[in-house]
Amino acid sequence: MTLLEVEGLCVRFPTRRGLVRAVDGVDLTVEEGEVLALVGESGCGKTTLARTIVGLERAQEGTVRFEGKEVRGRGRARPMRDYRRRVQMVFQDPTGALNPRQTIYEAVAEGLRVHHMGQDEERRVADALSRSGLRPPERFFTRYPHEVSGGQRQRVVIAGAMVLEPRLLVADEPVSSLDASVRGEILGLMRNLVDTTGVAMLVVTHDLGLAWNIAERVAVMYLGRIVEVGRAEEVLQSPQHPYTQALLSVVPEAKHVEQQILQGETPDPAAIPPGCRFHPRCPLYQSGDAEELGIAQQCRTVDLGLAPIANDHVVACHARA
Amino acid sequence: MTFRFVSRKVLGSLATLLFVVCFNFFLFRVVESDPVSALFRGRNISQQQRQQLQHDFGLDKSKPEQFVRYLNQTAHLNFGFSFETRQPVTSEISARIGRTITLVGISTLLSTTIGIWLGIIAAWRRNTPTDYVVTSTTMAFYAMPDFWLGLLLLAAFAESFRWFPTGGIVNVGSGATGLSHLVDEAKHLFLPGLTLTLAYLGEYTLIMRSSLLDTMGEDYLTLARAKGLRDATVRRRHAVPNALLPIVTLAAVNFGFVLSGAIAVESIYSWPGLGLATYNAIRAPDLPMLQGLFLLFSAAVIVANLAVDLLYAYLDPRVRTA
Questions:
Q1: Residues in B touching A157 (Cβ below 8 Å)
Q2: Could you report the per-residue pLDDT of B28-61, keeping only the tens digit for each?
Q3: What is the ipTM of this complex?
Q4: Angle formed at CA A34 by CA A83 and CA A128, multiple of 5 degrees
Q5: Domains (ranges, CATH) in chain B?
Q6: Phi and psi dihedrals of A63, rounded to 5?
């Protein structure tokens, strides 16, 4: 069943250089109990998308539906409050995500108090800590964040999210600030939480290997738009969008494909190219293949949406349409 | 907080105090002065009287002898007699200390609370007209020399409008008691108090503003909002307590300066406190008075610093284990 449904979502920021279109018409769904990895270069808008889904940014256009009901309104409205409990977030840097003056117990219990789940608070906190791998939990109650390791801190943040019994966990680069040695452990913990509690997870990452390890489905984002979505093995083993292909070709494990180094920087989200937003960097377009296929004109002028090419595999590319 | 941590801080403070005691003696003797002729300027005193006075003041002895005598006296908490009034320095100081604590204490308290409050408002509404008005106004007062601000207020509210008295602590010759005496004192307190409050305000506002802005960038505030905490609660529970840490240092150190902080303002408003006493003692120079006052001022600052160190360890868990 579909848990989260994002449709036509646009988030824009006015800046001195003009209007930045960080999220520019995103369609995305998260199914119950699945892990969806959202991948893309830095600056492609994936973090903004995640923050908007959690309700930290306001979308100018589009809708977010959760369990079939549209999420709107400010923090005080009752449905929003309920939504804030059922969708939790995990940040990249656990050191910054914990108040240095709060004990670990306080950090985990805070959410419970906000949502009036204070009955048998201590048991709930202990339970969340031990399920996040901090055992025995009582030993961590009175400690401060600076007294535990980076990996343990991220476990505290995860416990603080899971204690609210969410349906969806949005994790923004959950392991990229951690030591390589504990990355696997934290990913294992997250996968385990999905399998045991049925929580769904949206993992924002720039690391395709991570997506491969943890996700059922992968969504590829480029310059404010999703350009390819599908089952992880399909997207990662037979990528259809030239951008996905280029991303994958530079993964060290991918020996069988020729490396494609994309030309140029990520274009400016304040000045998104017309037509297919990827065409100025597209190897297919640059090599003249698009011209041969007779679609070059479309690439330059027609902005296209996602179209299905196979079961559950959608791509936004004129060459695959 | 360990015993070792506390005792290390206390010992450090004592060492500083000891240094101040020694330094104090030489500070006022670097420039050769002749207190006797300064004090009796324009009056006819015979050579014999002059020598008698030199002897009474202990100025006929050599510097090392004077120093040993000073150390010995200070160790017994005897700070000597004022050259000018011939009263013990301790009683001169204790007669005035209350007035200074009233004036500067109230001003510091007011500027701290108002400054923190304004800083929070400015930070929370950063880059809005409110922020610009608060920041630029407090900055302007902060930049003004306090004696100049004092003179302006004096000229405006005491000279032109005559709303407040120009100086002193009560109206001369007023035999008022009880409530009307208190009202009279409050009127006299108002202008010097306002001057000092305005002069200190900017420091607190600007530091609170920037500290809160730093804190507001922290992820744990975003996370708290994502968990459903209201903005006002996030501010009260997470942002402000963490942003207050630098203010604690500033406030405590400034409270250390409460005793000495108002020399210029007390002189302008003839507020008969320690500041005015310092000003008068420097003119003479009334060496025992100066030594006593400076020792007291330094001790207050040292104690305040010690208090910050201990308070900080209590407030910030990261310092405790460091």
A1: 223
A2: 887 777 777 777 776 777 888 888 888 888 888 8
A3: 0.82
A4: 60
A5: 3-25+92-320 (1.10.3720.10), 32-78 (no CATH)
A6: -130, 155
